[in-house]
Amino acid sequence: MHHRSRTPKLLGAAVAVVLGLGVGVPPAFAGPAGELTAEADPVPRLVAGTDTAAPQLVTGVDESAPGADPAEAARAHLAAHRDRYGVDPAELVATGVQRSSDGRRTVRFEQRHGGVPVLGAAYLVHLAGEGDAQRVESVGGKYFTGLTAPTTQTVPDEALRGLALASIEDGPARTGATAEDGGLVVLPGGAGRLARHFTVRGTDRTVWDGKAREVYLDATTGAVALAETAGVADTPRTPAAAPAAPAPTAGLEPAVGTAPDVHGNRVKVNIARLPDGTYQLIDLTRPSVLTVYDAGGRDEMDLPGRLPGNLHPVSSPTPDFPDSLAATGAAEAQRNAAAVYDFYRDRLGRNGIDGNGGPIDAVVNVTSGGKGLTNAYWNAGRMTYGSGDDKYYPFAVALDVAGHEMTHGVVQYTAKLADRDQPDALNEALADYFGNAVEDTALDIPMTDPRAPLLGESLCRTGTQEACATRRLDTGRSTLKDYVGFPAGFADGSHDNSAIMSGALWDIRRTLDPLLADRLVYRALSEYLTPLDTFVDTRNAVLAAGRSLGLTRAQLHAVTAAFDAHGIKEGWEHRIGMDSRSLMQSLTDGSQSRPDVVDGRWVMASGPTGVVTGTLGRNAEPVRLSPADDKRSHYGPATDGTLAAWIAQGAAVGGPPEMSVLTRPLDGGATNTVYSSSGRLVQGVRVSGGNVAFQAYDYRTGLHQPWLSVNGAQAAPIALPDGHHGEGVSLRGDLLAWTERWQEGGHTVYAPTVYSLSAGKVVAQYVAGGTGGTGGTGGTVATAGAGLRADHVLLTADRLLWLETPLDGSRGTSIRSAALDGSDATDLLTGSTTEPRQINELTASEQAVTFGYAFTWPKGRHVVNSDLPKLWQLPIDGGTPERLSCNRGGQYMPVADRGTRVLWADATPGRTDLVVRERPAGTC
Fold first, then answer.
1. What share of the chain is helix, strand, coil (3-state, %, to 5)?
2. 232 pLDDT exceeds 90?
3. Which residue range forms the structural domain that includes residue 129?
4. Interior CA angle at 314 toward 313 and 318, to 5°?
5. Does residue 661 contact residue 681 with C-beta atoms inside 8 Å?
6. What is the per-residue pLDDT across 816-862, written as a single tens digit (0 to 9) for each?
7. DSSP secondary structure letters along 839-876
8. Which residue in 468, 658, 727, 841 could disulfide with 652, CB within 3.0 to 4.6 Å?
9. Is residue 718 located within the same domain as residue 775?
């Protein structure tokens, strides 16, 4: 069961690339105030910002800020102390004022750069008192001081939309896909990056079920700044700005009726009487109108945004709703919504999910793909409850699930936590905490009761509550033992790392009085947290909230002890052991960050516009290769140890962006352009001995074709037979290889192909599934190619390697090896039938082959580090694979150097680093 709320995605590098850089301490707060001992004040006085001169948190300010308008008083304070905060008030837009039950006010500002929103940038000012007695108590958040990115889009909207659709790697998935425009944003980090956001969705359930692709395209070059696909278990993504239209309440009269619960028992419900004398399941007794709709078994993909006009609230001709309603969980949906509203109002002083008494809608009896939906989520400003199945009751029955999901709505209207990495895990942790707090409070369950930390324990039709619970908050997980190392920006690490934070918060609730703990965590959420906050930021926010609530020194130390017990303390990422050496920290996510290396000289994209090169020396600093003075995006580099080649992408007037392929010697010299066009999408650059190869997709013809530049000359396409495509090139010396594909006999044929530059012709071709190839002995099997995919071709000195995967999943991926003349095709590693895993990474030196398995979601449980992709290595002539590294997190994008040395992207340390290891670790 996955419970999700959707907020915009952020560029991984924007949040992570600057970890550890630090900034200067504002003079007014310099000194040892932030250094704590066991006897010291647990609340930090100053927390420096990351990648910014603006501090993350300043407490103990206590300075006058008179004025009737809190927002203007806060703005005036920031303006008067620009030397302290580094904030330009002209870049701030006030988005709301949160008033606490004790009269404190929190003014929430969002940052604009040249009028364009800065994704995730929010700065907060906390005020106490009124009028002339008003004072500033604390200030903090994330405001980025170094932004110089342009604010004018130069690539046409439709060109960017087309590039968003073209970014989908699976070509068939583009059929029927749409790209919803989310507008311009500035991605923070360094100088920033102007981007246009698109959400890409499709209609083919086999490809798009439960998925959406969030794509941020550089608005001045068209290059992909970020593109990621949510996991299959995620809920549909719908912008928070598109809530369901509330049911009209004019002419309705409050009434009381009965309805069956899921067990068939009659329960009292608040209902509304319509002018025609009929009744609907609408509760008018609270400022927030609670309305329940019956989807009637409609599919969740039919309900992505505003509710259809023909979907109406649950109705009845009499106040006693029919027995058939029991199967939907409608009565529980209304009663649970009321319990959640009452919890937030009576216990925390919040008027509804949006804080302003806005309507709360719930849709029950939703299905998925013709089957019962065993999920629930807050989406498009409403609750969606799955119908359940033979194992699970309708998901509306669980009060803790309702509290969890509706808390996502509270987060949406307060902290707006980003939907990725640690902020996303924090979102889930807060939802878990308040979901259980709602249920335990409403049902008067003490913290000592075994049920108290369980989430979803009432959903199962059979079995014990302990076995049924989807999560529990008392597992004792910590960052140092259990943090799951997903790569930066991965779509769904949240549910797997949330237990670390929710466990710490639950320990606080078990240590303090539960009411005080609930108020403490809620104040941190509503008044201190901002979209990009991490686990450690949350620790500081809770402590600062505790100070404002008047917690004693002993209580504050109890809070710090809870966070310490779960490893949530400054610098925890550096305490995770690794057996590799880091070359660069905090990489951007995606294939544009893939490294390349030959003889210890490596190249890599770094940031939005740069390609850098470095050596494996321990103190060697990377050197920029790409021009620093042009306005193009530079990415996708490759090297042969002497020369580098990469893609440069820039705006073209009135059409798709122009894409060029550039080369430059690693030791410096002139930059040469070997290709430039605005009509093709360029990918997979390779370089060898001064020659450059790549693949290009022609927007007009839909053709994928290999291109070749010889000794710096302008690149030209390699001619292919009609209807044939060439993808995934490899280049070595006189030989160029690619995967050729075409349609034959109703299926797609894949054929690894070798081309001689000097002869100007194909010298070997192996059809997937065949026993040999053209140009050699053995021939091909008549049915070869049916149901098999071949890709990842790779040239070594005397062999061609590739991956071959059955499309029906009957066995795992095989690594195949063949001679360069079309003969001797054999399995270097045979795909397993008992464990049919797919390999999606392949690299090789003259001595060893390194590979990695594709990630697959485990069924029925959350992900642990052992589930994540790990790299394996075996001798080039075959043998038993060994683990390349025992690092516990995910390992991605390997590239082999000489011998057994490999570089890769490793997500073990709570971020994604470029690392190197000289030899396999063996058994871990």
1. 20, 35, 45
2. no
3. 12-142
4. 125
5. no
6. 999 999 999 999 999 999 989 999 999 999 999 999 999 887 877 78
7. EEEEEE-SSEEEEEEPP-PPTTS---GGGS--EEEEET
8. 658
9. yes
